[in-house]
Amino acid sequence: DVKVTQSSRYLVKRTGEKVFLECVQDMDHENMFWYRQDPGLGLRLIYFSYDVKMKEKGDIPEGYSVSREKKERFSLILESASTNQTSMYLCASSPRGPATNEKLFFGSGTQLSVL
Amino acid sequence: GEDVEQSLFLSVREGDSSVINCTYTDSSSTYLYWYKQEPGAGLQLLTYIFSNMDMKQDQRLTVLLNKKDKHLSLRIADTQTGDSAIYFCGSRGFQKLVFGTGTRLLVSP
Q1: Is B96 in contact with A45 (Cβ distance < 8 A)?
Q2: E-strand stretches of A56-100
Q3: Buried b (16+ CB within 10 A) or exposed e, A79-106
């Protein structure tokens, strides 16, 4: 079974801190994604990556950056955390299958609270 | 841009059928997905349908697609308390998967 592991289940940070959220997948997937989940808003795509050292902005990239130095690891960085970034963050990966078929495998999520 | 809409809540009794509805805007969507999120967990793929299909059945799950109206539904037969979760509809457009807001299904005994 594919395993997507997020380093922390719960995280509490202060406003202005630099925050790193780590995600590792063990199935050699090319594609990796970061979403945030908020009540009533569903999942919104922050950044995604289709290859090592490659990144693309999603729908809400402001205030975030990402790093993909190795195929299995995709990091989300909050350069200066703000209270409106309090959210559940979900990492996902998928294999590079046919161009229009993309099944995502999700981690369990990191609940980030910014005080 | 692409948009996917779902109602937020659905409450049913154990043993009844549940129907969760979704509408999407991207007419170029090639695959449509249903994901399930149990409490404290990430999303898990339940089923998917290719856009040239009208229906797909998988045990207790039936997916219906009306491409003309851009309407997708998920029917769960004989709903059990273990089916209580949030269900997300997803539309696969160019480059990425767009999710709806999720429908929280509550199954009461």
Answers
A1: yes
A2: 56-57, 64-70, 73-78, 87-94
A3: eebeeebbbbbbbbbbeeeeeeebbbbb
Asked if residues B34 and B98 have their Cβ atoms less than 8 Å apart, the reply is no
The separation between the first and the last C-alpha atoms of chain B, rounded to the nearest angstrom, is 41
Question: Could you give phi then psi for residue B40, rounded to 5 degrees?
Answer: 75, 15
Rounded average pLDDT over A90-115: 83
List beta partners, residue A19. Answer: A78
CA B50-B107-B109 angle, to 5 degrees, is 145
Cβ of residue A102 closer than 8 Å to a chain B Cβ: yes
Instruction: Sort out which chain B residues have CB atoms less than 8 A from A35's CB and list them.
Output: 99
Tens of pLDDT, residues B80-102: 999 999 999 998 876 678 899 99
Please list every residue in chain A whose beta carbon sits closer than 8 Å to the beta carbon of residue B96.
33, 45, 48, 58
The SS3 call for residue B50 is strand
As a 3-state breakdown, chain B gives helix, strand, coil percent values, each rounded to 5, of: 5, 60, 40
Between strands A19-21 and A73-78, the pairing is: antiparallel
